[in-house]
Specification:
Its cofactor is K(+); Mg(2+). With 499 residues, the protein is α/β, with parallel strands linked by helices. The protein is 38% helix and 15% strand. Bound molecules: ligand NPW and potassium ion (K).
Length: 499
């Protein structure tokens, strides 16, 4: 899957350009038709169930009115809960209202308690929402929370910021849809932050607008086409040196598990040799993974090795020394966990990072990202794309900002949102495994951008596989991920070979 993501400003420009060449109301009629077609598909053979259509004050409400009229024409029992605003509706929305009025649509002005619906269509607000959903609108959204049927959002689930995926406003509220049909281009907010929980499955309908009319998108959904060329079958005539060395630097006193999880991630993602360079006295070996070699970090030679630095590393003087040495080296570098916090606190380490020429990939969660940027995690989460872009620009590195809809950014402003993964990844150690996978791909010669995109995608796909097998999301452990990562990777290579 590869899909461009447009900002509201870009969508308004697309809308304006498309609008100019069409009869008034055409786009809204197309949106209403796409919505009612999708609604009929969701109803399937339950077309006798009543459908509730929520129509708000703006053009999103106009889309909903068109959809309601279409459903009634198709013989569906469609009821509109109409909540117009104080201002006059646009000409198109007024026309859609007249059309629905003339048909066999039912009308209500409040949510009847206890009513049962086969489907709810949310056309309260779309990309025009700029302040929190309140008053009667809020009451309706609260009322939806107890309704147990599919909810189809038109364009954007009402209450969600289409650019950022944040629910609008302090103490804001947004519709939790099971499906979203989005118009004129996909939107980043449907795929990150609160977006995945509120949008459900996303379908894009371009309303007949051709790709030549679209601006250049600086954000897209990540997907196999971005890195599929790297999945080549291994040649027979190879050896462990052919697939790179990865060294995990971390494991201070009491934190030996984190680098071991990273090391397993690297091993199962195909690195030739994997070391743990431990700050504390290294264990002799890992009995469940004896392939991992343990060394003391202080006198470990970084040369020719890909480094994953930070898991369980702590903030000792020795940790800072090792991090400075790693930043100054020519080794490809994944920077995780404690190493990120140390960089956030040190202008000296920041300038060493910014001056690097070898690949560097940073893997912050929102709090680590916040420390790097000198802001709060809430501010990072309020605009994850912008935060990831800013981090990439300041550090001159590729950034993987973890969380629901992980954002991957590079210094030139290009951004990906990863669509794989699930809540099972919200568990201790899963980030360590991700850093290890990323290290393994760098060690096999991938660029920082490809390694970051693919490691995130594969890590999420591995978690999705585990959920399909009944292992999670509840109770999924980080230690279960590496074997699933191996399965996903080998399947991708096999699929690539058979294409
Ligand atoms: N134009 C086109 O060609 C096409 C448009 N399309 C569709 O239009 C949608 C965009 O329409 P839109 O711009 O009218 O904005 P929309 O999201 O409906 O809401 C804005 C309205 O809500 C009001 N309002 C805002 N916040 C509020 C609050 N908290 N509480 C109460 N009221 C509030 C606000 O009022 P105001 O702020 O002006 O007082 C204004 O009236 C887009 O998402 C897509 O679905 C498609 O058909 C494709 C073709
Ligand atoms: K909506």
């Amino acid at each position: 899957m590869e899909r461009h993501l447009y900002t509201v400003a870009q969508l308004r420009a697309i809308e304006q350009a498309a609008y100019a060449g069409l009869a008034p109301g055409t786009l809204m009629q197309r949106a209403g038709k796409a919505a009612s077609d999708f609604a009929l598909e969701l109803l399937g053979d339950r077309r006798d169930r009543p459908v509730l259509v929520l129509a708000g004050p703006g053009n999103n409400g106009g889309d909903a009115l068109e959809a309601a009229a279409n459903l009634a024409d198709a013989g569906v029992d469609a009821t509109v809960l109409h909540l117009p605003g104080r201002r006059d509706a646009s000409t198109e929305t007024a026309a859609a209202y007249e059309r629905a009025r003339a048909g066999s649509v039912g009308w209500i002005d409040m949510l009847p308690p206890g009513a049962e619906w086969g489907l709810v269509i949310d056309g309260l607000f779309g990309i025009g929402l700029e302040r929190p959903v309140d008053g009667d609108y809020r009451e309706v959204v609260v009322g939806l929370e107890t309704i147990r049927c599919p909810i189809l959002a038109l364009d954007v689930p009402s209450g969600l910021d289409a650019d950022t995926g944040a629910v609008i406003g302090p103490d804001g509220i947004a519709v939790r849809a099971t499906h979203t049909i989005t118009f004129l281009g996909d939107k980043p907010g449907l795929h990150t932050a609160d977006g995945r929980d509120h949008a459900g499955q996303v379908r894009v309908d371009m309303l007949g607008v051709g790709s030549e009319a679209l601006p250049r998108a600086t954000a897209q959904l990540s997907g196999l086409p971005l890195f599929a060329g790297r999945f080549t079958a291994r040649r027979h005539n190879t050896h462990k040196g052919s697939f790179g060395d990865v060294a995990i630097i971390g494991g201070a006193h009491g934190m030996a598990g984190a680098p071991v999880l990273s090391a397993r991630g690297a091993l199962y993602a195909g690195a030739g040799r994997v070391y743990v360079a431990a700050l504390n006295t290294p264990p002799g070996y890992d009995s469940s993974q004896p392939e991992i070699m343990f060394r003391a970090a202080e006198d470990f030679d970084f040369f020719g090795r890909t480094l994953v630095i930070g898991p369980g590393m702590g903030d000792s003087a020795s940790a800072i020394r090792l991090l400075a040495r790693a930043l100054d080296s020519d080794s490809p570098l994944v920077i995780d966990a404690d190493a990120l916090n140390l960089i956030g606190a040190s202008p000296d380490l920041q300038s060493r990072l910014a001056q690097r020429t070898a690949p560097a990939v940073l893997t912050p969660h929102p709090l680590e990202g916040a420390r790097l940027l000198g802001m709060t995690a809430a501010v990072v989460q309020s605009d994850r794309l912008e935060a990831a872009r800013e981090m990439a620009l300041r550090t001159n590195a590729t950034v993987i900002l973890k969380g629901s809809g992980t954002v991957i950014a590079r210094p030139d402003g290009e951004v990906l949102i990863n669509p794989t993964g699930n809540a099972g990844l919200a568990t201790a150690g899963s980030g360590d495994v991700l850093a290890g996978i990323c290290g393994a791909l760098l060690a096999q010669g991938w660029t920082g951008w490809e390694a970051a995109a693919a490691a995130t995608w594969i890590h999420g796909a591995a978690a999705d596989t585990l959920v399909d097998e009944g292992v999670g999301p509840i109770g999924m452990t980080a230690g279960e991920l590496p074997a699933a990562v191996r399965k996903v990777l080998n399947r991708l290579v096999k699929d690539a070979a058979s294409r």
